[in-house]
Amino acid sequence: MTSSVTGLSPPGTGTAAPVPPPRRGSRIDPLLGVIGIAGLVVVAELFPRTGLVDSRYLPPISAMLAELGRQAAEPAFWSALGSTLLGWGTGLAIALVAGTAVGIVIGTTAMLRAVTSSTIEFLRPIPSVALIPLAVLMFGTDMRSTLLLVVYAAFWQVLVQVLYGVADVDPVARETARSYRFRPWTRVRTVVWPTALPYVMTGFRLAAAVALILEVTGELIIGSPGLGREIAVAQSSGAVEVMYALVLVTGAIGVLVNLGARLVERRALRWHPSVRREVAA
Amino acid sequence: MTGALRSTLRVLGLPLVLVAIWWIATAGSSNFYWPSLQSILTAFPGTWFEGRFGQDVLPSMGRLLVGYTLALVIGIGAGIAIGSFRRLRLLLEPALEFFRALPPPILVPIIILFAGIGDGMKVVVIVSGALWPVLLNTVEGVRGVDEVQRDTARVYRLRPLTRLRRLILPAASPQIAAGARQSLSIAIILMVISEMFAASNGLGFTIVQFQRQFAIPEMWSGIILLGLIGVLLSMIFRLVESRALAWYDGARRADREKG
């Protein structure tokens, strides 16, 4: 959920300053992050053990991890994890394809761009969770209910970035392509796509995070199969340790999604000056 | 004159067409789940303006406001601290990375354990999710402050508070605003979710209630109301942002024209 400015920012998204050069580094610096995590773990272990926090609310982290180990032996855990990942991936893929296609069509046609902009501005801020009751009516607790939310939320992230990207195409390049009478498909492939790609990637990264949030939300509220539903079940049956174990897993998925999205972005943009500059620095 | 007419048509044209299509497509609809737009709009005032406005809409908005403000204050404050001290940042970065990656709604069951299901719970839920975008963007913004300006402030021995007010906050404000905008949409989502999960009043609660009672036109009117609130808040945000960052937009435009 980081902004489009952090990480790799397409030209013109803000004051993305170059990372300041490392200075007066000491030997302990690289270890600090590990110390931070370790400190957190120690606190999460000691607070419940010493009774500072009621262990019925926050069990010691060793108990959570032991529970996680037990969960890992259960097929139900793996099928919940699978459903979450499947729903997330499917929704993200649909949103990416649809957002990119619609974005390029609208973005390359001046008339469409002018006519649709107010509608897009209006539809985008509608919170996707408003659709939950409708999704439940249409699909019940089926996976498709959650899929609807995921696609709706992720679609706008992609679409808006693609529109920015297409608008960023160099006018001279565009006019040149027109003068040479490139066919529309060639024009999209050779002129529009390379300019828009960094924006598409930003959209992809944002959409990947948002899709995960909505996937878990749908499972939690609607009760479609997945980790979110297991968390809700654990909560209502008072299985606090199970609940925390599953929350840890979901957090780990979130971290992996963020790292993975950043990796994909870097690979896809290896040729792009912004990435090459970072590598050289 | 024709120019103004044309731009109005451009802004309102498609929305009007879409609403008209919705109206015509569902007119006299006998489908239970897709009532006619006319019946939704007829249900709207009676549903929301007679009693429920003070009972459900205002409490929801109050929680949202309190939660969002707290998230901004904590996020900007902690962000400035973390962004200013390199060691602190290195210490906390991996842990923050984990909490940011945690989808905020799954914290709802945990927070219910600690805070029950009252107003406090909803505010904590909103803060716990809306905090991260503004926090991390503030950290990045503070880190990105121009080295030369930073050194200049040091050479002139500006006092920390002056430095904060005159240099760091303005320089980081575009990024902080970008974070605050994301936080706002997360805060709205969490307001609705916390009410859907466990509540006795509020927008999210009422809409789910309508759905369970199969009061379909009322449910639709709630969806429309949530949409309107989302749009309205994002418009207010953009207004405030364009006021506060007028200098920045101006500077960028000037930059672009030069380049």
Automatic annotation (TrEMBL), chain A:
Membrane topology recorded in Swiss-Prot or TrEMBL: Multi-pass membrane protein
SUPFAM superfamilies membership: MetI-like
Record flagged with keyword Transport: yes
Main location (coarse class): membrane
Residue ranges of the TM segments: 31-48, 85-110, 122-141, 147-169, 190-214, 242-261
Listed CDD domains: TM_PBP2
Span of domain ABC transmembrane type-1: 81-265
Compartments where located: Cell membrane
One cellular-component annotation, GO: plasma membrane
InterPro entries: MetI-like (IPR000515), MetI-like_sf (IPR035906)
Annotated Pfam families: BPD_transp_1
Keywords noted in UniProt: Cell membrane, Membrane, Transmembrane, Transmembrane helix, Transport
Gene Ontology BP annotations: transmembrane transport
Family according to the record: Belongs to the binding-protein-dependent transport system permease family.
Official protein name in the record: Putative aliphatic sulfonates transport permease protein SsuC
Organism the protein comes from: Pseudonocardia autotrophica (Amycolata autotrophica)
Automatic annotation (TrEMBL), chain B:
Subcellular location: Cell membrane
SUPFAM superfamilies attached to this UniProt entry: MetI-like (SSF161098)
One annotated Gene Ontology cellular component of this protein: plasma membrane
Entry keyword annotation includes Transport: yes
Membrane topology term: Multi-pass membrane protein
Domain of life, source organism: Bacteria
Pfam families membership: BPD_transp_1
Alphabetized UniProt keyword annotations: Cell membrane, Membrane, Transmembrane, Transmembrane helix, Transport
Transport in keyword set: yes
GO biological process, one term: transmembrane transport
Xref: InterPro entries: MetI-like, MetI-like_sf
Transmembrane spans: 12-34, 65-85, 106-132, 184-208, 220-240
Gene3D superfamilies xref list: MetI-like
Assigned protein family: Belongs to the binding-protein-dependent transport system permease family.
The name this protein goes by in its record: Putative aliphatic sulfonates transport permease protein SsuC
Gene designation: ssuC_8
